[in-house]
Write a sequence for this structure.
DNA sequence: GAAATAGTGTCTCTTAGACACTATTTC
DNA sequence: GAAATAGTGTCTAAGAGACACTATTTC
């Protein structure tokens, strides 16, 4: 039987075993990839999300950033908390409670932690149920936050073509986007500026490289939209 | 000095003291109100959010719902997790880690827990810094989720006038909304249906009562919008 | 020139918001 | 009738998407 709860400390204050788990994401072709590390042989699954046990002395965000850095071999370009996960789902470390973080990085040519590999988010190997839930919430969280945080830009290197950017948006939205409309919206938002560089990718006309350079704050006066799921 | 971390258990598994804190919200005039309970005299602040210590044996969502029910004297009409809060901020119970939940309820004529009172969200008394952060995130979370969850409807009784509904939207959005436009959007979304009842509120033409009855799933094909904060 | 990719001009349709109006109640 | 609140018809401007086009490269 798994030990999921812990006895009170001597002081009488109840405490729980807790972990901090991270979902590192990068674009891989037209899909997202997630970084997994080999799981200890004792476990049921062969792969797991990078995680650390929480000791209570740590800062949440700081610990997440450190764990991400160690797993990736470099600082992630964006990181955010996804939430707390408990319930009955099993965690590889037997933690009663897990705090999930999601982070993104543009490149995959890093010095990954030993044995770590990228796996397509749509075809992940078996994970402990708790970690599967964290991955699902993290991907959903990326989709929700791309409106209000520069997630798409952080999935790209500092300079990128507009087609690159559109493909990241399509990847996150899970649908195709109209090219001309996409570019008009982007121009109206004053989020990118052109560089002097062009990239030639085999055949076809070379594309101009842009960089993320938000200029002004949009009114944010989005209309009232009722996007609730119907009955 | 506060005891914020806990020693490892006998089994050697690190553990932390953790709390579950809830932000109960209800509309109060044109503003949101939050339920607070009297804090123990020992603490620095006179009020606090309802919270419980986590033991690790509990389910997160279930515990939150129970705590909300006990504080409110009735089940909340909607509840969701906001996130995990740690960092250096002090919690009334000295917990090293706190899981925040936000819940809403339409009415304020409940059998509240002893001493509990509603306080306007814009003018809260002093709270422990951790709990202040949880309140701020909870209110922001309500604003973000009203697009995708029926938060506004759960802040209203089962039947309501369209003016009631519009006022809740204005309260959550923090800005005025155009009446005709609001009603057109609402009609297009097939989210409410009229009842046979009308409510006369003193002077003026009586308003028809509606109920929340989502009918069909909208395409959800919202265009790409870049609402990132500008530099 | 063919193929491929980048980038743009114009049209239409939807919709948020402004404005002005009608409708029904209490005083 | 005046005041107050509920509810609606019409116009305009913005913007998303369709379509078709031009531009520049490799083969």
């Amino acid at each position: 039987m798994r030990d999921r709860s812990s006895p009170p400390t001597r002081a009488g204050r109840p405490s729980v075993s807790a972990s901090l788990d991270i979902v590192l994401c990068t674009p891989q072709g037209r899909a997202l990839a997630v970084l997994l590390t080999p799981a200890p042989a004792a476990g049921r699954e062969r792969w797991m999300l990078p995680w650390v046990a929480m000791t209570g002395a740590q800062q949440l965000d700081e610990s997440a950033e450190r764990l991400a850095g160690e797993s990736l071999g470099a600082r992630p370009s964006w990181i955010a908390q996804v939430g707390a996960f408990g319930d009955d789902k099993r965690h590889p470390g037997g933690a009663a409670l897990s705090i999930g973080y999601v982070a993104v990085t543009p490149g995959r040519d890093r010095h990954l932690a030993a044995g770590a590999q990228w796996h397509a988010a749509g075809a992940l190997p078996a994970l402990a149920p708790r970690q599967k839930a964290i991955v699902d919430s993290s991907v959903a969280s990326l989709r929700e936050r791309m409106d209000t945080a520069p997630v798409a830009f952080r999935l790209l290197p500092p300079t990128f073509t507009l087609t690159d950017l559109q493909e990241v948006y399509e990847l996150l939205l899970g649908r195709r986007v109209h090219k001309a409309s996409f570019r008009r919206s982007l121009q109206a938002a004053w989020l990118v500026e052109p560089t002097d560089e062009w990239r030639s990718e085999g055949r076809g006309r070379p594309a101009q490289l842009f960089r993320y350079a938000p200029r002004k704050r949009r009114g944010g006066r989005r209309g009232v939209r009722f996007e609730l799921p119907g009955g």
